[in-house]
Protein backbone atom coordinates (compact mmCIF):
# COMPACT_ATOMS: atom_id res chain seq x y z
CA UNK A 1 0.00 0.00 0.00
CA UNK A 2 1.19 3.52 -0.77
CA UNK A 3 0.95 6.56 1.45
CA UNK A 4 -2.29 7.74 -0.11
CA UNK A 5 -4.01 4.43 0.62
CA UNK A 6 -2.78 4.53 4.22
CA UNK A 7 -3.98 8.08 4.79
CA UNK A 8 -7.47 6.99 5.89
CA UNK A 9 -5.99 5.20 8.91
CA UNK A 10 -3.78 8.07 9.97
CA UNK A 11 -4.78 10.90 12.26
CA UNK A 12 -3.24 13.92 13.91
CA UNK A 13 -2.79 14.47 17.62
CA UNK A 14 -3.90 18.08 17.98
CA UNK A 15 -7.20 17.14 19.69
CA UNK A 16 -8.47 20.73 19.24
CA UNK A 17 -5.52 22.12 21.22
CA UNK A 18 -4.77 24.41 18.27
CA UNK A 19 -7.95 26.37 19.02
CA UNK A 20 -7.93 29.39 21.34
CA UNK A 21 -9.52 28.53 24.66
CA UNK A 22 -11.97 30.99 26.29
CA UNK A 23 -9.63 31.49 29.23
CA UNK A 24 -6.78 32.82 27.09
CA UNK A 25 -8.23 36.18 26.11
CA UNK A 26 -9.63 36.69 29.62
CA UNK A 27 -6.26 36.00 31.16
CA UNK A 28 -4.63 38.69 29.04
CA UNK A 29 -7.21 41.26 30.16
CA UNK A 30 -6.69 40.37 33.82
CA UNK A 31 -2.90 40.64 33.43
CA UNK A 32 -3.23 44.31 32.44
CA UNK A 33 -5.63 45.03 35.31
CA UNK A 34 -3.56 43.19 37.91
CA UNK A 35 -0.23 44.72 36.86
CA UNK A 36 -1.65 48.24 37.14
CA UNK A 37 -3.10 47.67 40.60
CA UNK A 38 0.06 45.89 41.72
CA UNK A 39 2.16 49.03 41.23
CA UNK A 40 -0.35 51.20 43.09
CA UNK A 41 -0.62 48.88 46.10
CA UNK A 42 3.13 48.32 46.51
CA UNK A 43 3.86 52.05 46.40
CA UNK A 44 0.96 52.82 48.76
CA UNK A 45 1.98 50.08 51.19
CA UNK A 46 5.54 51.43 51.37
CA UNK A 47 4.43 55.04 51.69
CA UNK A 48 1.70 54.53 54.31
CA UNK A 49 3.37 51.73 56.28
CA UNK A 50 0.70 49.03 55.91
CA UNK A 51 2.07 45.47 55.87
CA UNK A 52 -1.32 44.08 54.86
CA UNK A 53 -1.48 46.49 51.93
CA UNK A 54 2.15 45.83 50.95
CA UNK A 55 1.52 42.08 51.17
CA UNK A 56 -1.48 42.53 48.91
CA UNK A 57 0.63 44.42 46.38
CA UNK A 58 3.46 41.88 46.48
CA UNK A 59 0.91 39.12 46.17
CA UNK A 60 -0.44 40.84 43.09
CA UNK A 61 3.10 40.95 41.73
CA UNK A 62 3.36 37.18 42.06
CA UNK A 63 0.00 36.81 40.40
CA UNK A 64 0.99 39.04 37.52
CA UNK A 65 3.89 36.67 36.89
CA UNK A 66 1.65 33.63 37.33
CA UNK A 67 -0.97 35.03 34.96
CA UNK A 68 1.82 35.70 32.47
CA UNK A 69 2.81 32.05 32.72
CA UNK A 70 -0.81 31.04 32.16
CA UNK A 71 -1.02 33.23 29.04
CA UNK A 72 2.26 31.77 27.75
CA UNK A 73 0.99 28.22 28.37
CA UNK A 74 -2.13 28.89 26.29
CA UNK A 75 -0.04 30.36 23.46
CA UNK A 76 2.58 27.60 23.55
CA UNK A 77 -0.06 24.86 23.51
CA UNK A 78 -1.80 26.37 20.49
CA UNK A 79 1.34 26.99 18.46
CA UNK A 80 2.74 23.52 19.08
CA UNK A 81 -0.51 21.57 18.87
CA UNK A 82 0.53 20.00 15.56
CA UNK A 83 4.13 19.31 16.57
CA UNK A 84 4.70 15.55 16.02
CA UNK A 85 7.28 15.49 18.82
CA UNK A 86 4.39 15.70 21.30
CA UNK A 87 3.05 12.14 21.25
CA UNK A 88 -0.38 13.01 22.64
CA UNK A 89 -0.55 16.68 21.69
CA UNK A 90 0.06 19.68 23.93
CA UNK A 91 -2.92 19.29 26.25
CA UNK A 92 -0.72 18.78 29.30
CA UNK A 93 0.84 22.21 28.85
CA UNK A 94 -2.40 23.41 30.42
CA UNK A 95 -1.75 21.34 33.54
CA UNK A 96 1.91 22.38 33.57
CA UNK A 97 0.90 26.05 33.56
CA UNK A 98 -1.49 25.38 36.44
CA UNK A 99 1.17 23.48 38.38
CA UNK A 100 3.66 26.33 37.96
CA UNK A 101 1.07 28.82 39.16
CA UNK A 102 0.40 26.63 42.20
CA UNK A 103 4.11 26.57 43.06
CA UNK A 104 4.21 30.37 42.89
CA UNK A 105 1.16 30.54 45.15
CA UNK A 106 3.00 28.41 47.72
CA UNK A 107 6.17 30.52 47.51
CA UNK A 108 4.34 33.79 48.05
CA UNK A 109 2.23 32.31 50.84
CA UNK A 110 5.50 31.62 52.68
CA UNK A 111 6.77 35.12 51.86
CA UNK A 112 3.56 36.72 53.16
CA UNK A 113 3.77 34.74 56.40
CA UNK A 114 7.43 35.63 57.01
CA UNK A 115 6.92 39.33 56.32
CA UNK A 116 3.80 39.44 58.48
CA UNK A 117 5.61 37.85 61.43
CA UNK A 118 8.35 40.46 61.00
CA UNK A 119 5.82 43.29 61.16
CA UNK A 120 4.14 41.67 64.17
CA UNK A 121 7.45 41.78 66.03
CA UNK A 122 8.43 45.21 64.72
CA UNK A 123 5.31 47.38 64.13
CA UNK A 124 5.50 50.47 61.89
CA UNK A 125 3.40 53.62 61.66
CA UNK A 126 0.44 53.24 59.29
CA UNK A 127 -1.36 55.93 57.28
CA UNK A 128 -4.81 54.42 57.76
CA UNK A 129 -7.07 56.58 55.57
CA UNK A 130 -4.87 56.36 52.49
CA UNK A 131 -4.13 52.66 52.99
CA UNK A 132 -7.82 51.79 53.42
CA UNK A 133 -8.74 53.69 50.25
CA UNK A 134 -6.11 51.84 48.20
CA UNK A 135 -7.17 48.48 49.69
CA UNK A 136 -10.82 49.12 48.75
CA UNK A 137 -9.82 50.01 45.19
CA UNK A 138 -7.71 46.85 45.08
CA UNK A 139 -10.65 44.72 46.20
CA UNK A 140 -12.84 46.25 43.47
CA UNK A 141 -10.18 45.49 40.85
CA UNK A 142 -9.88 41.92 42.09
CA UNK A 143 -13.64 41.53 41.94
CA UNK A 144 -13.68 42.66 38.31
CA UNK A 145 -10.82 40.29 37.49
CA UNK A 146 -12.65 37.39 39.14
CA UNK A 147 -15.72 38.10 37.04
CA UNK A 148 -13.61 38.20 33.86
CA UNK A 149 -12.11 34.79 34.64
CA UNK A 150 -15.13 33.37 36.44
CA UNK A 151 -18.60 32.19 35.64
CA UNK A 152 -19.38 34.38 32.62
CA UNK A 153 -19.60 31.88 29.79
CA UNK A 154 -17.75 29.20 31.78
CA UNK A 155 -19.23 26.43 33.89
CA UNK A 156 -17.71 25.36 37.21
CA UNK A 157 -16.97 22.01 35.59
CA UNK A 158 -14.88 23.68 32.90
CA UNK A 159 -12.81 25.41 35.57
CA UNK A 160 -12.06 22.01 37.06
CA UNK A 161 -10.69 20.75 33.74
CA UNK A 162 -8.87 23.87 32.55
CA UNK A 163 -6.14 23.85 35.19
CA UNK A 164 -4.42 26.83 33.62
CA UNK A 165 -7.59 28.92 33.96
CA UNK A 166 -8.20 27.56 37.46
CA UNK A 167 -4.69 28.62 38.49
CA UNK A 168 -5.29 32.15 37.19
CA UNK A 169 -8.69 32.24 38.90
CA UNK A 170 -7.24 31.14 42.24
CA UNK A 171 -4.54 33.80 41.99
CA UNK A 172 -7.22 36.45 41.54
CA UNK A 173 -9.25 35.05 44.45
CA UNK A 174 -6.13 35.10 46.60
CA UNK A 175 -5.65 38.75 45.69
CA UNK A 176 -9.25 39.47 46.70
CA UNK A 177 -8.68 37.66 49.98
CA UNK A 178 -5.59 39.69 50.86
CA UNK A 179 -7.49 42.89 49.97
CA UNK A 180 -10.30 41.91 52.36
CA UNK A 181 -7.90 41.02 55.17
CA UNK A 182 -6.03 44.30 54.60
CA UNK A 183 -9.27 46.31 54.89
CA UNK A 184 -10.35 44.48 58.05
CA UNK A 185 -6.92 44.88 59.63
CA UNK A 186 -6.69 48.58 58.81
CA UNK A 187 -10.21 49.27 60.11
CA UNK A 188 -9.47 47.39 63.33
CA UNK A 189 -6.22 49.25 63.83
CA UNK A 190 -7.72 52.67 63.08
CA UNK A 191 -10.90 52.49 65.17
CA UNK A 192 -9.97 50.05 67.94
CA UNK A 193 -6.21 50.46 68.18
CA UNK A 194 -5.65 46.83 67.19
CA UNK A 195 -2.43 47.48 65.26
CA UNK A 196 -1.48 43.81 65.56
CA UNK A 197 -4.41 42.89 63.29
CA UNK A 198 -2.52 44.13 60.22
CA UNK A 199 0.24 41.48 60.32
CA UNK A 200 -2.04 38.81 61.81
CA UNK A 201 -4.40 39.15 58.86
CA UNK A 202 -1.38 38.75 56.60
CA UNK A 203 -0.62 35.42 58.31
CA UNK A 204 -4.24 34.25 58.04
CA UNK A 205 -4.28 35.12 54.36
CA UNK A 206 -1.03 33.25 53.74
CA UNK A 207 -2.47 30.09 55.32
CA UNK A 208 -5.54 30.13 53.10
CA UNK A 209 -3.46 30.80 49.97
CA UNK A 210 -1.21 27.88 50.94
CA UNK A 211 -4.27 25.64 51.17
CA UNK A 212 -5.42 26.65 47.68
CA UNK A 213 -1.91 26.02 46.41
CA UNK A 214 -1.81 22.49 47.79
CA UNK A 215 -5.16 21.65 46.23
CA UNK A 216 -4.08 22.86 42.80
CA UNK A 217 -0.71 21.09 43.11
CA UNK A 218 -2.59 17.86 43.76
CA UNK A 219 -4.94 18.10 40.78
CA UNK A 220 -2.34 19.27 38.25
CA UNK A 221 0.30 16.87 39.56
CA UNK A 222 -2.11 13.99 39.00
CA UNK A 223 -2.49 14.96 35.33
CA UNK A 224 1.26 15.40 34.81
CA UNK A 225 1.96 11.99 36.40
CA UNK A 226 -0.71 10.20 34.30
CA UNK A 227 -2.91 9.28 37.22
CA UNK A 228 -5.84 7.04 36.33
CA UNK A 229 -9.04 8.81 35.24
CA UNK A 230 -12.00 9.04 37.66
CA UNK A 231 -13.48 5.67 38.64
CA UNK A 232 -16.87 6.48 37.11
CA UNK A 233 -15.21 7.04 33.71
CA UNK A 234 -13.32 3.74 33.93
CA UNK A 235 -16.50 1.89 34.91
CA UNK A 236 -18.40 3.41 31.99
CA UNK A 237 -15.69 2.28 29.54
CA UNK A 238 -15.66 -1.23 31.02
CA UNK A 239 -19.46 -1.57 30.98
CA UNK A 240 -19.66 -0.37 27.37
CA UNK A 241 -17.11 -2.90 26.14
CA UNK A 242 -18.59 -5.80 28.12
CA UNK A 243 -22.16 -5.10 27.00
CA UNK A 244 -22.28 -8.23 24.78
CA UNK A 245 -21.86 -10.57 27.78
CA UNK A 246 -18.92 -12.36 26.14
CA UNK A 247 -16.17 -9.74 26.25
CA UNK A 248 -14.18 -9.14 29.42
CA UNK A 249 -11.84 -6.22 30.03
CA UNK A 250 -8.59 -7.59 31.49
CA UNK A 251 -6.50 -4.41 31.56
CA UNK A 252 -7.64 -0.80 31.51
CA UNK A 253 -5.63 2.41 31.61
CA UNK A 254 -7.39 5.76 31.11
CA UNK A 255 -5.58 9.03 31.76
CA UNK A 256 -5.93 12.73 30.98
CA UNK A 257 -3.89 14.18 28.12
CA UNK A 258 -5.54 17.60 28.18
CA UNK A 259 -8.58 19.51 29.46
CA UNK A 260 -11.57 17.15 29.25
CA UNK A 261 -9.80 14.72 26.90
CA UNK A 262 -8.45 11.26 27.69
CA UNK A 263 -6.33 8.52 26.18
CA UNK A 264 -6.86 4.82 26.88
CA UNK A 265 -5.01 1.51 26.61
CA UNK A 266 -7.40 -1.43 26.90
CA UNK A 267 -7.00 -5.22 26.75
CA UNK A 268 -10.07 -7.41 26.21
CA UNK A 269 -10.63 -11.16 25.90
CA UNK A 270 -13.63 -12.97 24.40
CA UNK A 271 -14.57 -16.36 23.02
CA UNK A 272 -15.94 -14.65 19.92
CA UNK A 273 -14.15 -11.29 19.74
CA UNK A 274 -15.75 -8.41 17.92
CA UNK A 275 -13.85 -6.38 15.38
CA UNK A 276 -11.75 -3.44 16.56
CA UNK A 277 -14.18 -1.07 14.84
CA UNK A 278 -17.13 -2.57 16.72
CA UNK A 279 -15.42 -2.25 20.08
CA UNK A 280 -14.60 1.33 19.23
CA UNK A 281 -18.21 2.08 18.36
CA UNK A 282 -19.35 0.93 21.81
CA UNK A 283 -17.48 3.75 23.55
CA UNK A 284 -19.75 6.80 24.05
CA UNK A 285 -18.46 9.99 22.41
CA UNK A 286 -19.35 12.01 25.51
CA UNK A 287 -16.53 10.37 27.49
CA UNK A 288 -13.90 12.55 25.81
CA UNK A 289 -11.79 9.60 24.66
CA UNK A 290 -9.69 10.99 21.81
CA UNK A 291 -6.95 8.37 21.56
CA UNK A 292 -7.82 4.72 22.27
CA UNK A 293 -5.74 1.56 21.69
CA UNK A 294 -7.53 -1.77 22.15
CA UNK A 295 -5.71 -5.09 22.41
CA UNK A 296 -7.98 -8.03 21.55
CA UNK A 297 -7.37 -11.64 22.66
CA UNK A 298 -9.39 -14.68 21.66
CA UNK A 299 -10.13 -16.99 24.59
CA UNK A 300 -8.04 -20.19 24.42
CA UNK A 301 -11.11 -22.32 25.14
CA UNK A 302 -12.45 -21.29 21.74
CA UNK A 303 -9.23 -21.44 19.72
CA UNK A 304 -5.75 -22.88 20.09
CA UNK A 305 -3.98 -19.61 19.51
CA UNK A 306 -4.55 -16.02 20.43
CA UNK A 307 -4.54 -13.01 18.20
CA UNK A 308 -3.86 -9.38 18.89
CA UNK A 309 -5.28 -6.38 17.07
CA UNK A 310 -5.14 -2.68 17.78
CA UNK A 311 -7.31 0.31 16.97
CA UNK A 312 -6.64 4.02 17.41
CA UNK A 313 -9.54 6.42 17.76
CA UNK A 314 -9.12 10.14 17.21
Order of helices and strands: HHHHHHHHHEEHEE
Class based on secondary structure composition and strand pairing? alpha+beta
Strand order, sheet with most strands: 1-2-3-4
Distance between the termini: 22 Å
CATH superfamily membership of the largest domain: Cation efflux protein transmembrane domain
Helices, by number, come to 10
How many whole angstroms does the radius of gyration measure? Answer: 26 Å
Give a nutshell description of this structure.
With 314 residues, this protein is of the alpha+beta class.
How would you describe what is shown here?
- The protein is of the alpha+beta class and 314 residues long.
- Helices cover 62% and strands 11% of the residues.
- It has a four-stranded mixed beta sheet with strand order 1-2-3-4.
- Helix 10 (276-282) links the parallel strand 2 (261-270) and strand 3.
- It is elongated, with a radius of gyration of 26 Å.
Describe this protein with a few key phrases.
elongated; 62% helix; 2 domains; alpha+beta; Alpha-lytic protease prodomain-like; 314 residues; Alpha-Beta Plaits; 4-stranded mixed β-sheet; 4 strands
Amino acid sequence: MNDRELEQWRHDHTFAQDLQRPGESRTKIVILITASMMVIEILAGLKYGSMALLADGLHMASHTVALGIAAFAYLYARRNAGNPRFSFGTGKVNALGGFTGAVLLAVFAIFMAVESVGRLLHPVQIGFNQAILVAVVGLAVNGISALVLGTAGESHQHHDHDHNLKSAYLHVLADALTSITAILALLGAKYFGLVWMDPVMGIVGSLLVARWSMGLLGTTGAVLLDRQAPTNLENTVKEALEADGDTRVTDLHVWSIGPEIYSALISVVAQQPATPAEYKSRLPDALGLVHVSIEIHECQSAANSGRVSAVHRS
